[in-house]
């Protein structure tokens, strides 16, 4: 009943998505990856195509795409891939791990990816092509923009609002009712307690180190 | 078999609790909220009462109350509501998400609320009217006082002991064997490695920001 | 079919493991603990042996050991117990909570312990005798060395590589592709954004405190 899937990208992020999709017994018709796919048993037995144009071999109405391009702060390849194929008429599958916890009152736009252990609470809205990574927490009433990456273990308290292309790093925390404007990068472990202007990088105090005597 | 529920409060925290209770097919006889309830489909079709006194329309033995007042550091409305209606003879329901992980050897006192993805380990004890919020971790042997709020993504290591009215902020971490006295506020993301005196606020170094060139 | 288990250690960590094993209906033939076992209903009805040598009462082929010694930074008792009984020919059971999330493409070596709510992603490898504690996140492609402790709520991003005897503290965050050499202690809440040399302690800025007026 659900359509076959064509994965774009063959790195670590793609491997995590395919892991989820294999558990859900989804049919994967191939991976499109100009670079060699990462070494992983998860890719075993899947056809690899080398050019983005190979996507056109597949009919828009018979498959859905999965955006397997990994999220990188200040690199918009992932967003470009999404826009490009949407413009041509392809649809992107929303990938949701069976091991995530999503409120029945939350909404996910097209192409959203929710990884294992992630929590999305009541009335949250997740914008198109965004990733809620492993164990990340999106509290009640959050509005997450398009092309966001909420990294593993990050926590957004109630009613946080992020605009387009925001990256919230690993283990970062944002308190309630905060607005984060577009193209912001919140560093790993950073703690955000006031609104953030567009195109801002927020990074935390670095850990101090000493060698054990 | 389980009693009908009357919810006190109609904001974001109430919405999260009702979301859980609806999944558990609990009967909700109404929401008591002097202010307009938050905009959420979760409230749809539930009667709204406007005065605290409307609670008295319901017989103490036929319903249980749910404390839907959101936790706020340095504001004890939530605790007052609990004490007031307990004194009159009402009982508060303990609300536990089916998506939380609670040891069979842990104990929860009356009115405790455990939200999705929270973990409560072996031999932990959670005091009356406390909230263990989404994805928070309470390790083995922790003793959590009454009227506490352990915010989303906070982690309390083994045998941490908190007294009454402690607030542990979003993503905060407390190492093992720490005592936290009453009326303490641990800020979001703070890291606690020694005991904390009563009525203390602990806050972490703020994130540094710069605008991307 | 699965073998009976003999637990070494009777403190908080042992209680958490026995809690998991009881849920899995595993037969526990005893606890070996020179010190009094911790007060916990979880130990109820289990025989206690007082000397390490009591292990020899049990045939190597008929039981498996469980390393219940708690992890402590800069204390290698847990590693010594593992090596000592392995050298004699005993096997250690791998203990995995039913409430953890482990990719089918991840690998766990002998004696690994994965506690409730922990997440281990695609292609991760966990070295012998290591603990992935409650709610910790091990992202795709991580290689975790032997005798590691990844504490509750810690997050290791993709392709982090730790060597032997590394301790990652409660709520700590490590960004992707980081190498952490042997005998490193990452303090609770520390944020690691570059490689760490052997025998280093990394600790974060302490929280600032003030008493509420």
TrEMBL record, chains A, B, C:
The keyword Transferase applies. Residues 5-84 form the PglD N-terminal domain. CDD domains: LbH_AT_putative. Keywords: Acyltransferase, Repeat, Transferase. InterPro entries: AcTrfase_PglD-like, Hexapep, Hexapep_transf_CS, PglD_N, Trans_hexapeptide_repeat, Trimer_LpxA-like_sf. Gene3D superfamilies: 3.40.50.20, Hexapeptide repeat proteins. Signal peptide: none annotated. Belongs to the transferase hexapeptide repeat family. This is Acetyltransferase. It comes from Paraglaciecola aquimarina.
């Amino acid at each position: 009943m659900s359509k076959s899937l064509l994965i774009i990208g063959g790195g670590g992020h793609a491997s995590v998505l395919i892991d989820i999709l294999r558990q859900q017994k989804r049919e994967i018709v191939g991976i499109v990856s100009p670079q060699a796919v990462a070494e992983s048993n998860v890719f075993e037995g899947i056809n690899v195509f080398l050019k983005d144009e190979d996507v056109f071999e597949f009919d828009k109405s018979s498959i859905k795409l999965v955006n397997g391009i990994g999220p990188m702060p200040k690199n918009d390849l992932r967003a470009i891939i999404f826009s490009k194929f949407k413009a041509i008429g392809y649809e992107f599958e929303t990938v949701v791990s069976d091991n995530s916890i999503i409120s029945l009152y939350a909404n996910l736009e097209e192409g959203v990816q929710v990884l294992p252990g992630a929590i999305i609470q009541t009335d949250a809205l997740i914008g198109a092509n965004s990733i809620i990574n492993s164990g990340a927490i999106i509290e009640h009433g959050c509005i997450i923009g398009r092309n966001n990456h909420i990294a593993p273990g990050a926590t957004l308290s109630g009613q946080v609002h992020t605009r387009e292309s925001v990256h919230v790093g690993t283990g970062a925390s944002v308190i309630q009712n905060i607005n984060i404007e577009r193209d912001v990068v919140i560093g790993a472990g950073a703690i955000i307690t006031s609104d953030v202007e567009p195109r801002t990088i927020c990074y935390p105090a670095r850990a101090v180190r000493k060698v054990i005597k």
